[in-house]
DNA sequence: CCTGTGACCGGTA
DNA sequence: ATACCGGCCACAG
């Protein structure tokens, strides 16, 4: 039992969860954390995605915050890129907000 | 060792 | 509905 968290292993789990998000769906950082079994690791999820290389195959763009908004400042490079990728998968945002009811995980 | 930071979240006013 | 606040926790300096 020594339920000690292995951050290096947790990273792998997080990436696997994110990779498992179906195309056309989105999940919040906290939700990804929950699926990993660590509901309070939302911030850590973000820090892991931040470390991903530009050529990664991980669909990091399908992860947004709990409010249904992209976590970057509106108009920033990353914001525009993420919005573009989402739009490509048929995910539309209303006034910068994405409907979790519609695109959230089932 | 201590402090600040961040792709977060939920409660309260 | 928005704004503020405290909790959260790995990581960098």
Pick out its properties:
single chain, 106 residues, mainly alpha, two-stranded parallel sheet, 2 strands, globular, DNA-binding
What does this structure look like?
By secondary structure, the chain is mainly alpha-helical. It is built from five helices and two strands, in the order αβααβαα. A two-stranded parallel sheet has the order 1-2. It is globular and about 40 Å long. The N and C termini lie far apart (32 Å). The mean pLDDT is 95. The structure holds a DNA duplex (13 and 13 nucleotides).
The portion of residues assigned to helices is 40-55%
Radius of gyration based on Cα positions? 14 Å
Which parts are unreliable, with pLDDT below 50 for 5 consecutive residues or more? none
User: What is the SS-derived class?
Assistant: mainly alpha
Mind describing the biggest β-sheet? 2 strands, parallel
What is the typical, i.e. mean, pLDDT? 95
N-to-C SSE series? HEHHEHH
Q: Widest sheet: strand order?
A: 1-2
Kindly state the number of beta strands: 2
Task: Please give a quick description of this structure.
With 106 residues, the chain is mainly alpha-helical.
List the helices and strands and how they pair.
Layout: H1 7-19, E1 27-28, H2 29-36, H3 42-51, E2 63-64, H4 77-88, H5 100-103
Parallel strand pairs: 1-2
Helix pairs in contact: 1-2, 2-3
The protein binds a DNA duplex (13 and 13 nucleotides) through residues 7, 28-30, 33, 38-50, 60, 63-67, 70-72, 78, 82.
